[in-house]
Amino acid sequence: MSNSFDAIIVGAGFAGMAMLHRLRSDGLSVRVIERADGVGGTWYWNRYPGARCDVESMEYSYQFDDALQQEWDWTERYAAQPEILRYANHVADRFALRQDIAFETSVNAAVFDEEHERWVVTTDGAAGPEQLDASFFILAVGCLSSANMPEFEGHESFGGPTYHTGQWPHEGVDFTGKRVGVIGTGSSAIQSIPIIAEQAEHLTVFQRTANYAVPAHNGPLDPDTVADIKANYADFRAQNSLQNGAFGSRMARNDASALAASAEERQDAYEARWSDGGFGFMRAFGDLSINAESNATAAAFVRRKIAETVNDPATAELLTPKQTIGCKRLCVDTGYFETFNRPNVDLVDVSRAPIERLTPGGLVTGGNEYEFDAIVFATGFDAMTGSILRIDIRGRDGRSIGDAWAEGPVTYLGLSVVGFPNMFTISGPGSPSVLTNMIVSIEQHVGWIGDCVEHLRSEGHQTIEATDDAADQWVDHVNGVAEKTLFTGCNSWYLGANIPGKKRVFMPLLGYPPYVEICDRVAAGGYEGFAIDRSRQLA
Ligand code: NA7
If you measure from the C-alpha of residue 344 to the centroid of ligand 1, how many angstroms do you get, rounded to a whole number? Predict the structure, then answer.
């Protein structure tokens, strides 16, 4: 079998599957490399109890095929991980994707061979190391796929099992009768803590930063709502794409300033959004993400809810976030704050006295030792760049991607990197990605890349790559947009601030609809900001 392809895609999550389907439909030969033994990406790995999407299920699915979206039935307002993984598998079967995916295979290196203008990709799988080559090299590696495991002293000495939420055992974990420690209070922790608390004999949560969470109000989907959406699915999708985050047209933003409303009107608006549940809360007013004073009114509302929910005032105070709301990603919860009223749950503040070390029996912080049978690391991810940088990728002149991104990720449109011809990143740093409904953003990138590849092939062009000027201006644009908001004022993973030593750069671009316009304009203008090698025919 030949090892030469038109395109090699890394990752068989939602991005890799859609890209494979598109390029194969265009007649290209494609090989997808996937380190897991199945499709699904993020939803393959994140099997922790309570794992659930925070975008509503009727929106969190592909729209490239109408029959697919008509025939698939979601059961709940927010789909749980097992159901999303079933959907991913359904798509893989329905479009016969598996035949072009090499599972249980890692990409270790990818080098651009300048003489032949092809990517040479080194993989490692069951058959041992292999070398493949292709004209196009597409990274569909996921934004949250590189687990952040803090390096605590004595980690290996702990006598019980440790789990990272993003690498959860497939057979599940039964915490019944166990003393469990959970480190972290981000989305993964907030989803899993209520369920672990029900099983465990005792649960201790170690919190470094208190987080805002709004209730999900999850439940079975109403068949009439589903029928309505399905009757006009294209219109529903189009409306959602016009939202800043490409989701939730049903809970569209009220553009007025929070400061223009009376205290009573604000209270009513927040209460209505709180009762509805989910991310719509941050759309109660138009300036919650740009005006600190407006933001403070929303923050105060949630803080009051926490105080009303948590019985013990000291615990409530500790659970009360101090930063602006929405700066770190807002969490969507089911019974999180209520869980701290349980007699078997404790909260330990590690903001001032960090976790010092793990011991054979547990962990030590603030001079106290806590004893556990199991420890859960809900400590997040090296977001957006981690999964790209762990591959040894080398472009022109043998320059590594690590070198190119030493001062933070530099891309043009979040799609292309200077000096790395014919390499594309799906939902890469510098694109709206994690600030949107990921599947919408993925399909937009897949469409743009697919059209670009088609253009090159039909015109007989060999390579395309971002120019220095365009990429520099793009990074300035991404940061400029963020700096006009409150998003840069806290230690979020959007800024890489959760990873010790990571350059502090705001990685995703705010605003999906204007981004799509720019991408379309660039393509229509003959790929402005890109250098195209028109000298040779594609092999
Ligand atoms: P997050 O949101 O990055 O949360 C990680 C949590 O772990 C957060 O509370 C961190 O505190 C905490 N953390 C990380 N390292 C440590 C150490 N060394 N000590 C104590 N606490 C630590 O990851 P999630 O998996 O919950 O969610 C990621 C995204 O997935 C989420 O936003 C959704 O998009 C889905 P910190 O806040 O940094 O002080």
Answer: 23
Separation CA 276–CA 279 (nearest Å): 10
Q: What would the pLDDT profile of 168-187 be if each residue is shown by its tens digit?
A: 999 999 999 999 999 999 99
Opening angle at CA 172, ends 168 and 173, nearest 5: 95
Q: In angstroms, rounded to a whole number, what is the distance separating the alpha carbons of residues 496 and 315? A: 29
| Distant-in-sequence, close-in-space partners of 534: CB < 8 Å, separation ≥ 6 | 459, 460, 461, 462
Tell which one of 42, 47, 188, 491 to mutate to probe ligand 1, the residue whose CB is within 8 A of the most ligand atoms. 188
Ligand 1 pocket residue status of 150, Cβ below 6 Å: yes
In order of 134, 258, 289, the CA distances from 293 in angstroms are: 53, 9, 10
- Residue 5 CB neighbours (<10 A): 23
441 CA distance to ligand 1 middle (Å):
23
Report whether 389 contacts 408 (CB < 8 A): no
**Residue 313: DSSP 8-state:** H
pLDDT at 126: 86
CA of 284 to the centre of ligand 1 (A): 26
Q: Is 350 in the pocket of ligand 1 (CB under 6 A)?
A: yes
* Pocket of ligand 1 contains residue 499 by CB under 6 Å: no
**Torsion angle in degrees (nearest 10) through CA of 309, 315, 320, 321:** -140
Residue nearest atom 25 of ligand 1, based on CA coordinates: 380
User: Which one, of 432, 186, 433, lies nearest residue 332 by Cα?
Assistant: 186
Nearest CA to ligand 1 atom 33: 187
Query: What is the percent of the chain where pLDDT is above 70?
Result: 99
Query: Which atom of ligand 1 is the closest one to the Cα of 166?
Result: 25
To the nearest whole number, what is the mean pLDDT of the chain? Answer: 97
What H or E segment, with its residue span, contains residue 71?
A: helix 66-71
The backbone torsions φ and ψ at residue 317, rounded to the nearest 5 degrees and listed phi first, read -60, -45
Contact 328, 209 (CB under 8 A): yes
Count Cβ neighbours within 10 Å for each residue of 437-446 and write b for 16 or more, e otherwise. bbbbbbbbbb
Amino acid at 169: P
Total-model pTM: 0.97
Is residue 188 within 6 Å of ligand 1 at its C-beta?
yes
> Measured in angstroms, how far is the CA atom of residue 193 from the centroid of ligand 1?
13
Per-residue pLDDT tens over the stretch 91-100: 999 999 999 9
Compute, in angstroms, the gap from residue 379 CA to the centroid of ligand 1.
4
